[in-house]
Amino acid sequence: MDMKIDIMTLFPDTVGDVLWESILGRAQERGYIRIETHQIRDYTTNKQRQVDDYPYGGGRGCVMQAQPLYDCWRHICEEAGERLHTIYMSPCGKVFTQEDAKRLKNDYKRFIIVCGHYEGVDERFIDACVDEEISIGDFVLTGGEIPAMAVADAVCRLIPGVLPDEECYTHESHWDGLLEYPQYSRPEVWEGRRVPEILLSGHHANIEKWRRKQSIIRTRERRPDMYEKLVFETKQDKKLLKEIEEELSDGNDEQQDQ
Predict the structure, then answer these.
(1) Cα separation of 50 and 41, whole Å?
(2) Containing H/E element for 194?
(3) Measured CA distances, 6 to 38, 86, 166, 212 (Å)
(4) How far apart are CA 64 and CA 43, in angstroms?
(5) What is the C-alpha separation between 106 and 146, in angstroms, rounded?
(6) What 8-state DSSP symbol labels residue 47?
(7) Is pTM, for the whole model, over 0.85?
(8) Is position 174 within any domain?
(9) Both 223 and 95 in a single domain?
C-alpha cells in the first residue's frame, strides 16, 4: 500500500461509501491506497454520545469538544505507531491547490484529515494535534466531509497505479500552472458544432502544438491570476505567444473596422 488516509468524521458511512466508488474504490481493492473513516462519537464518554457543547463567551451554535477529537486522534496515531501528520479542514485554512496535493503525496505515506462540524472545533485540539489547516475555497460548508473527500481524491489519484498512466493527470488543469485544453469526442458533428479540424488530421505534433496553444489562451482568458505567474522559456512557447498576440491584434483591428 502506497498511501493511507484516516478521516475523522461524524459521518463515516457517507464518506466511506463515496470514496469506495469508481476509480478510488478499485484502487483500494487492489491495495494501492487505503482510506479509513473513524466515527468521532465512538470516543465520547457520555451515554448520549455528545461531541459538542455551547461556546465559552456566548454566541450561536455549538463547538466540537476537544476530548473526543483528541481520543480519536490518539487512537489512530497509536495504531500507526507514530504521530501522524494531521490536517483540519477549515474555512480559515490555506486554500488547497494541486501543489498541495503533490506535496502530501510526496511527503507522507499516511496522514489524518479531521472533519469539523457545527461552529468548528475547540481551538485547544487544533493547537495540540493539528499540523495544518486547509480550505477548498473562500466559502463555508456545513461540515468538513466534502472538503476532506476532495483532498483525499486529489492526493490519491496521484499514487502510482490508481490511474492507468501519469499522463492521466500530468496533462490536466493546474499540473504545470495552465488550464487544460478543450476536449472532444464522437460524433464529429453535434448540433451543428464540428470538432476542430486539427484533431482529425492525425498529425500528432501539430495536435500537441494546438493543445498547448489552447491551454495558454484558456488560462489567459479564464484565470489571469494564474497566467501572470507563468514563465514561458521554450522557443515553442514563445512562438505560440507571438501567434496569440498577433491573432488578438488582428481581432481588435477587425472590431475597430466594423
Answers:
(1) 7
(2) strand 193-194
(3) 7, 9, 25, 38
(4) 13
(5) 23
(6) T
(7) no
(8) no
(9) no
